[in-house]
Amino acid sequence: MKKQNLVVVGAGLVGSLWACYLAKKGHQVKIFERRSDMRKTEMSAGKSINLAMSTRAWTAVEKLGLQDELLKIAIPMYGRMIHQEDLTLDFQAYGKEGQAIYSISRGDLNIALMQEADKNDHIEFHFDEKCSKVNLDKREIRFKNAKTGEESNYTADAIFGTDGAFSAVRYQMQKTNLFNYSQQYLEHGYKELSIPPKADGSHRLDKNALHIWPRKSFMLIALPNLDGSFTVTLFLQFKGEISFDRLNSDKEIMDFFTKFFPTALEHMPDLLKEFKENPSASLVTVKCSPWHYKNACLLGDAAHAVVPFYGQGMNAGFQDCHVLDELLDQNPDNSWEEVFEKFSTLHSENGAAIADLAIRNFIEMRDSTASDSFLLRKKLERYLMEAFPNRYLSQYQMVSFTNLPYAYALRKGDQQTAFAEKLVKEYPEESLWKEQAFLAKVEAWLNSLD
Ligand SMILES: Cc1cc2nc3c(=O)[nH]c(=O)nc-3n(C[C@H](O)[C@H](O)[C@H](O)COP(=O)(O)OP(=O)(O)OC[C@H]3O[C@@H](n4cnc5c(N)ncnc54)[C@H](O)[C@@H]3O)c2cc1C
Questions:
Q1: Is beta strand 74-77 parallel, antiparallel or unpaired with respect to 50-53?
Q2: Residue located nearest, by CA, to atom 21 of ligand 1
Q3: CATH, domain range 5-73+104-183+284-361
């Protein structure tokens, strides 16, 4: 393919990474972002989210040689630290010895990717430029400058919509024939809070774990930051008996935390201020297909916005870049539209799959992480992974520690869960798992799958 003039809409995580991929192929890339350059502005309160970064995202950044640099700003989390209601702690490893997911600040990651993009002469950033109109048939795109109000028009060889869950590019695609789209809000929202560092700058909780306070229909989580603090997120229903709606006065907020999260509260001196100042934000799932129309293509949240409970939204978006890049390499004589078609066909079912997995993981995190039967099944899964290496991988392993398609992880994981649930009923004691009959049963089941 000749070197082309390309437009990327949205300089978030996925847009910034994708611009680097495109420029590496020698294309000229203009990337437009409706917000100001985040490298020059203060982040607004309650928007400091840190993300869990796992294999899919690491694979995608490694392709650009960025892994080592990003590891310096990431903290490994080797498992979940469950803070039970009876105040006991329970550590559940995520994977095999040494396997971790990584806590990384969304802002720092975005800045690192923008800086990488800025090193390439083929990439031009345009900030404060909001995409206001797209003509997908003519490949024309219009932006309005947020500061001057001026409008400008561009024509591109191809347009990439990386403009997030409420994508303007996708909005135009929604009007085209045979485009499928769904949007679903969760009845839960989230609010960001924090645990500051100790006076000596160290962390107040184990920094190598993702902390969860599961409380059935709601939960609190905390991910570590480099400066010794934790970003804490409360996931709670907007309405109902126990909900954001019922937490208005200082007393209501303090009573709620004292009752449900006393071990977090003792580390949260700024709780009241943060609770009142930070927004309660909503969580949306967006599914659509195909992910393209003619010479325009969607990546990241624009194609698949998922709730954050599997820690996979950004990971999925980065994997989009990796997958599309490989398809472009494998099909050098195809047009953009032909490659986008292949991308949609191959990969869009994976967006829908991770959306479903993420909703399910919410139920698992807030609810079943504390139950005995869940813990026994998890123990059994760990045992099976060790006893049958490379043949038994838990769904969590497939999603977080491999690049296997999400749709495959969903299907295979469901089969395994059903089997493991049956097994724990039949063999409820760990001591029985070493028995020949037990191992033969697992072997036979695995053979039937193979
Ligand atoms: C609470 C929470 C926790 C999360 N935790 C995790 C996690 O642990 N792990 C994980 O992998 N993911 C996580 N995610 C998801 C992750 O944040 C997103 O999947 C990721 O940010 C998507 O990147 P993106 O670039 O596709 O979209 P965005 O980050 O939304 O970026 C889109 C960009 O486009 C710009 N834009 C929008 N409209 C326009 C327009 N009309 N014109 C120009 N520019 C426009 C926006 O300003 C923005 O900069 C979490 C999300 C939330 C809300």
A1: unpaired
A2: 314
A3: 3.50.50.60
